[in-house]
Design a protein that fits this description.
The protein has 416 residues and is α/β, with parallel strands linked by helices. It is built from 17 helices and 14 strands. Helix content is 41%, strand content 17%. Strands 1, 2, 3, 6, 7, 10, 11, 12, 13 and 14 form a ten-stranded mixed beta sheet that branches. A two-stranded antiparallel sheet has the order 4-5. Helix 1 packs across helix 3.
Length: 416
């Protein structure tokens, strides 16, 4: 997951607001359905694999069949998605409806370019059907700015053969997990393939009650956070049971797991189709993440559909947005399991809550921490990642590394 700060402060926010104003018609008149013509709604998002693109196009086609007065123009932005969206919003040429990652949401919502959706919602839309943590990621000041289209949590992926041969049970607690990783490390293979970055370590960092972000600033050098993260460092440097994929010639956790260079990894739903396509012979299972200090926890990564506040086609845009995130549209979009439905009823109808591999991922949605923590999270993440990796590789003590990272992050936040 790329971490970047694209909202540089008031200057950009002001330009975005100017874009909103310039995008609105001078008399506030709508351009919807004039003279019996179809209303064209522009939908923008990033690209996916061929199956996902086919599912999205099918969902859109179903919507157009049910709404013959609306034509949907799909725009796929393949590179630098948020930069392109920002530029278009600033220029008053933003799409009517578009994807917004929960990680990016707080800063963009703050600029005022996203339309609040509460006034459009009806009882039939059934807001309570959404997994609560996923929905809350797009709520600010008690207003809802987006409805999540899909998500993934993190789960424990374990190699059945490697665990069986080592006589290791699927670990239920963090202590058991560390011991299992030690036992599984042998013959040039590791117990745990780890991603030493904040998006994956956030749930661990806060597991002892500490806050990575406090009052909008970095707080990851606090004792509670350092103590929570130390076992991850120790697994690599003391136990030598954990490995970053790059250390063994892999690019990410799914690959190091598929190559059977690591017996366990912590990954999301995206790893399931990858393993099926790339390493179909690997026998594995999934489980909810090991508890820490007796508590369940995981991360969730979600994307919402949002509406451009400057759109002159809000009625049609809401029809599209509400169909895409409604029960029928979401069922089509998530029917192949590439994405998990954010609606509980759809997950149950498709059987994902009982699925052998996806069940643990779905179970985590109700208690997950969503990867979204205020407008300064990009800055906080960048500084954390740089220094945490140095500690993970044994170049410096964890507490010293995180103190320096926190100081730098907060200095950048203050300067902006």
């Amino acid at each position: 997951m790329k971490s970047r700060k694209w909202m540089a402060g008031l200057g950009v926010a002001s330009m975005l607001m100017a874009g909103v104003l310039s995008g609105c018609s001078s008399d506030g008149a709508s351009t919807e359905g004039k003279d019996g013509e179809k209303t064209q709604v522009t939908l923008a998002g990033w690209g996916g694999n061929p199956t996902e693109e086919k599912l999205l196009k099918q969902t859109i086609a179903d919507f157009e069949e049910k709404n013959p007065d609306i034509d949907v123009k799909l725009e796929v932005i393949t590179e630098q998605y948020m930069d392109v969206i920002k530029t278009r919003l600033i220029g008053g040429e933003g799409p009517d409806v578009f994807y917004l990652d929960a990680f990016e949401a707080p800063a963009l919502i703050e600029t005022g370019v996203i339309e609040p959706l509460d006034e459009y919602v009806t009882d039939e839309f059934d807001v309570d059907d959404f997994e609560k943590p996923l929905l809350e990621a797009f709520i600010s000041d008690e207003q809802t700015y987006g409805f999540p289209k899909d998500y993934s949590t993190l789960a424990l992926f374990y190699n059945k053969k490697m665990l069986d041969e080592a006589g290791v049970e699927v670990p239920q607690t963090w202590d058991d997990f560390r011991e299992a990783a030690k036992t599984l490390t042998k013959d040039g293979k590791y117990g745990f393939g780890v991603a030493p970055e904040l998006p994956r370590q956030f749930w661990v960092a806060q597991s002892l009650g500490g806050d990575v972000v406090k009052d909008g600033k970095a707080n990851f050098a606090s004792d509670d956070v350092v103590n929570a993260l130390k076992p991850v460092i120790d697994m690599h440097n003391e136990d030598q049971s954990a490995v970053e994929p790059k250390e063994v010639g892999a690019t990410w956790g799914g690959e190091v797991f598929g190559q059977e260079k690591a017996a366990m990894v912590i990954e999301g739903n995206w790893a399931i189709p990858f393993l099926a396509d790339t390493f179909p012979d690997v026998e594995y299972g999934t489980a909810e993440l090991p508890t820490i200090d007796g508590k369940k926890s995981t991360m969730a990564y979600s994307v919402a559909y949002v509406m451009n506040a400057a759109s002159e086609k809000k009625k049609a845009s809401w029809k599209l947005l509400s169909y895409l995130t409604g029960k029928e549209g979401m069922e089509t979009w998530t029917s192949k399991g590439y994405a998990l439905p954010t609606r509980k009823s759809v997950a149950e109808k498709l059987g994902y809550d009982q699925d052998e591999l996806r069940g643990p991922l779905v179970a985590g949605a109700s208690y997950a921490t969503v990867w979204s923590e205020g407008t300064n999270l990009p800055t906080i993440t960048n500084n954390f990642n740089n220094q945490f990796l140095s500690a993970f590789l044994g170049d410096r003590p964890l507490d010293d590394a995180l103190k320096e990272a926190q100081k730098q992050a907060n200095s950048e936040i203050d300067s902006n």
